[in-house]
Amino acid sequence: MGCCQSSCLGVVISQEKASKNYLHQAQNHHPSHPANGNDPHSAASGGLRGFIEFSLADLKAATNNFSPEFIVSESGEKAPNIVYKGRLQNQDNRTWIAVKKFTKLAWPDPKQFADEALGVAKLKHKRLANLIGYCCEGDERLLVAEYMPNDILAKHLFHWENQTIEWALRLRVALYIAEALDYCSSEGRPLYHDLNAYRVLFDENGDPRLSCFGLMKNSRDGKSYSTNLAYTPPEYLQTGRVTPESVIFSFGTVLLDLLSGKHIPPSHALDMIRGKNILLLMDSHLEGHFSTEEATVVFDLASECLQYEPRERPNTKDLVATLAPLQNKPDVPSYVMLGIPKHEEAPPTPQHPLSPMGDACSRMDLTAIHQILVMTHYKDDEGTNELSFQEWTQQMRDMLEARKRGDVAFRDKDFRTAIECYSQFIDVGTMISPTVYARRSLCYLLCDQPDAALRDAMQAQCVYPDWSTAFYMQAVALAKLDMHKDAADMLNEAAALEEKKQRGGRAS
């Protein structure tokens, strides 16, 4: 963390209103032309880059008509859904995707399915395999996500061919998945359905990521566990509902998998832990190459997660706090520990000429961005607010005074104070200013809080959907989150909007 602590984010536009706006844009986007960063009218312009309503024909072509040869996961013997890999045929870069197939019986109402998918798609994080689209054509219910090319944790732990996962990478898997769960929880979606070793994927760099599919209920009635009942949270057996504490229990079973290299029922493992037979539980394929002290900490954490009483289990922040200090090879890339070649990707070429703002954002030059935002002041806010006479109250004057103080602090590079003052302005909610969101977004970036910066930049886009600055700020935040492909696409969208405006017409 940098100099700033999280402050109240003051979301002016309600989540419900934003959801309807995004869903409207996604559903009115022509399915045969997925949003790929070239079309400012696409669903990507709704604040969810790449959230696309795919046509069934697109997904059939991508998966060779859902060929069995393209199945990458069936998520357990009783699972009613299957995951396929595929490659989009109608995009220049022939992007690889993962497609999860549900039954219509699980989601009879297509709007309900689309609403649920939309909620999941709002979550964007480097620890997640992010959702990019869906399909509700006819009886089909399909989700589309980023494809992770280096298999699942279950295969690396239980069915490995070349080498087992070394201890340092197991600790990294545990931390990264804890961070993913903590991010989802902080964003108001703490429920993850049927968390297990099949839900943990490895990306092109060998980094572990949590599948976004588990954030979506398996059916509208919330029936979520398809694995053996021996691994199911006890309260789920009683109520049939997933709770945040249920997710922690399932995380405990993943910790046991990482420690033992086997899928051991929690009750059996807890008996061995209580009997101090920890070393008997450790994966023999590690051949002793692990720290007993670190293993003991992980076993203790697993034991806490697997407590019968939900209230006795830790929360996601506790998981991160316990696992973060154990990381013992922070400078060794995951692909090295996984034994795969390094992924090389040429930097994308900008598709449109960049303005000074675009150039500064492409270089991630926060100082230059600050200078441009100071010079631009509030000229881009014109027309975004129409206030009635009754709204010019003392509260309004106080709010404008808070913004003025924020502007002074922003100009003087006192970014902590600027965040506090801009938050006071936003929290009142009477006046909506995209510029304030953009400025606070930059403040968060300068204070090493890219998640908060991305959220503010997306809110600026909600208020002013065709504002290139909102896209540029998202590009910088995404780059700071190491989501470079998304950042490059967002940069191109911003440049396209600027170019269109210069030609004399605002995108609509």
From TrEMBL:
One Pfam family in the UniProt entry: PK_Tyr_Ser-Thr
EC nos: 2.7.11.1
Class of enzymatic activity (EC top level): transferase
Taxonomic superkingdom: Eukaryota
Compartmental location: Cell membrane
GO-annotated molecular function: ATP binding; protein serine/threonine kinase activity
GO terms under biological process: brassinosteroid mediated signaling pathway
Family (UniProt): Belongs to the protein kinase superfamily. Ser/Thr protein kinase family.
Organism encoding this protein: Manihot esculenta
Protein name: non-specific serine/threonine protein kinase
Keywords in alphabetical order: ATP-binding, Brassinosteroid signaling pathway, Cell membrane, Kinase, Lipoprotein, Membrane, Myristate, Nucleotide-binding, Serine/threonine-protein kinase, Transferase
Transmembrane segments: none
Reaction catalysis annotation: L-seryl-[protein] + ATP = O-phospho-L-seryl-[protein] + ADP + H(+); L-threonyl-[protein] + ATP = O-phospho-L-threonyl-[protein] + ADP + H(+)
Region annotation (Disordered) ranges: 23-42
Span of domain Protein kinase: 69-327
Lineage, opening ranks: Eukaryota, Viridiplantae, Streptophyta, Embryophyta, Tracheophyta
Membrane topology: Lipid-anchor
Cellular component, GO annotation: plasma membrane
